[in-house]
Design brief:
Elements lengths: L1 H35 L23 H8 L13 H12 L10 H22 L16 E5 L5 E3 L2 H19 L1 E5 L19 E2 L7 E2 L6 E4 L4 H13 L3 H8 L2 E8 L4 E5 L10 E6 L4 E3 L2 E7 L2 E7 L7 E5 L7 E4 L2 E4 L1 E9 L1
Parallel strand pairs: 1-12, 2-3
Antiparallel strand pairs: 3-13, 4-6, 5-8, 6-7, 7-16, 8-14, 9-13, 9-16, 10-15, 11-12, 11-14
Helix pairs in contact: 1-4, 2-3, 3-4, 5-6, 6-7
Amino acid sequence: MGVTRRSNNKRNSKSKKQKTSKHASTSESLADTSTKQLSWPPTDPSAKPLPLDGLLAGLDELLWSAMAHIDPQTSKHQQKKCQVFSREALNLIGMGWVATNTHPYRTALGKGNKYALAMEFFERNKWNPPASLPEIQKVEVVDKELTKSSIFEGSYQHVIQKNIKVMQRELETNGVILIRNAFSNVPENALSMKTNCTPTKIQQTTGNGIAGETKSYYADATSDYWIKVQNHILRGFLCDNDCFEQVKGNKKAIILKYGQGAENHAHQDNNQCDIFPYQATVLFSENFEGGEFYVAFKEESTITRRIVKLENKGDMVIFAASKKSKYFHGMMRVTKGERSAVGLFQPK
C-alpha cells in the first residue's frame, strides 16, 4: 500500500508540473503575441476562414476587428467562451442573427476564442489592448417583404393541387411561399412530442439562437397526422412514384416552442435531398408578437432577408432548404407571448 501511495504521489506531482508547465507556456505564447502584434488581430496562418458557402463568408476581418472592442469580462465566467464572445462580436457588426453552432463555424471561431483569452491575459496583467483598434463596420442587410405572387390562401391540399407550377417557380425565385389558413381541425395531440425524447434547447451558448424568458426548444413530433400531411404535400410536388417513395421515409416532423424574447438564428438543416429540397413550418399560436419567419441569402456582397409574417393559426410556409442551396432560414425575436409551430420535412 505504501509503494502504491508513493507512486500515486509521484504521478500527481508530475501531473501538477505538467499542468503548471502547460499554463506557463500558454501565458508565454500570449505574452509573445501581445508584444509582437502591431494590429488586431495578430496574423494566424493556421486559422480557418469562416465557411465560404455561408452568410458570414468574407466577413472574417470585420468579425475579428469587432472582437477587439469587447470587454473580456463578457465571457470570463461562461462555460462556452467562444460562442458568447463571438455572438457579441456578431451583434456589433449586425450579424448576430446568424447561427454558428455547426462544426465549420466552431472551428473558425476557435480563432476568436484565442483572442478572447488574449484579451483576458491583457486585463489580468494590467496591460492595455492595442492602442489603435480597428473601426467597427456594420454589414448592410436588406429586409424585403414577401411579394403577393408568393402568397396563397386556403386548404394546403387545394392550393397545391391548383397552383403547383406557380409555387415551384416562386420557390426557385424567392426561396419561400406562404399559404394562409392552410390547416383547420388539427387533432389535439398534433403538438405532442416523444416521451423519451430529449428536446434540443435554443440558447446563446450553443450559437443556435436565444432562449428567451422561458425554455425554447425543438423535439420530434409523435402524431401520425404529420406523416399523412407530409405525404399529401409530397404527392402534390412529386408526380413520379419512385421519387415519392424515396423521399417519404426520410422525413420527420418536429415541435418548435419559443418563449418571449426567443430567437432562432439563420441556419440550414442537414437536408441533402435533391428530389424534394424543401421544408415547411406550420404556425399553431395566435396570441404572440414578433417571431417573423425569414429566408436569408447572399449574392456577391449583398445579404437579403425575405420576411414572412405568420399571422393566423394554421398558416404554413414552404421554403427552399437544401444544403446545396443559397438559402438559410430563421425566426426573428418573439417580442410578446409564446410561439408554437410544427416543422415538416426535417431530415431524419
